[in-house]
Design goal:
The chain has 320 residues and is of the alpha+beta class. It is built from eleven helices and seven strands. It has a seven-stranded antiparallel β-sheet with strand order 1-7-2-4-5-6-3, with helices on both faces. A hairpin with a 2-residue loop joins β4 and β5. It is globular.
Length: 320
Amino acid sequence: MSGGWNTIESDAGVFTFLLNNLGVQDVQFEELLTLDPEAIAELYPVYGVIFLFKYPTDTPYTSTDKPLDGAFDRDAAENLWFAAQTIQNACGTQALLSMLMNREDSEVDIGEKLREFKEFTMALPPEFRGEALSNSELIRDAHNSFAKSSPFVDETQRQGGEAEDAFHFVAYTPINGTLYELDGLQPAPITHGACASAEDFPAKVSAVLQRRVARYDLSEIRFNLLAMVRDRRVAAREMGDAEALAREERKRRDWQFENALRRHNFVGFAGAVLKGVVETKMREGGEEAYARWVEDAKAKTRLRLEGRKKGGGGDVEMEG
């Protein structure tokens, strides 16, 4: 690392512990598998959502006059915490902060360090807030701590190979009775009309997201939606629901384990395992048995690849 920002995954466990590491209290993320308002409402209270989508390359994404949906609120760019995106790979954390900084109230405790950062940057215009964010060691280090270990370099990108699809994060949150879309690539916050209460938010944001998804081809399914909600362990304790509390604690442990795996590369471990397997095969049957084993493995791999091609390809990992 040379002071840059690494790519992190759109994952509830990543975003939840990223918040924890920044000092935010009693908040977590939940992944939503549907845009139905009922699914969002079940997580009440919902402070906002972060939407991940494929960055369009066939049509202009930004506009200085009018967005594809909603309307620019240029006055809000000064009054809300809104930062222009000035760096790559940080759009997920920027969307998270855009939502968090504007929901600081009696329900959301953003912590002392983020509160100081907010107080300092609110006096700046959006483009300088983006610069302040890009130069924040606190936020950058917390962000990069969740980057996956990548021991290999993709040389095809340097040799003119086909570029990978790019993805982008934006935040939607109700602020002062209005539903806002906060996207650092746009010139100002985008208003989507009145959103008088937390109860109105699920239906309002669902309609906006459905219109957004409808602009893509039916074959495009690489979307991800994360809701920022109150720590569900707090509600379980308040209700005395031991089963729910145990379930949420188990989820946290699973997230911690997954995050730990992201920080390590297992090339050395895999090499040691493979070496041990080869030595075992050689002891059991010599070179002839080893050769048969290799050929069998190649045949099975070819079958798997053929089956994957017939099934339409493998999974796509979405990051931003």
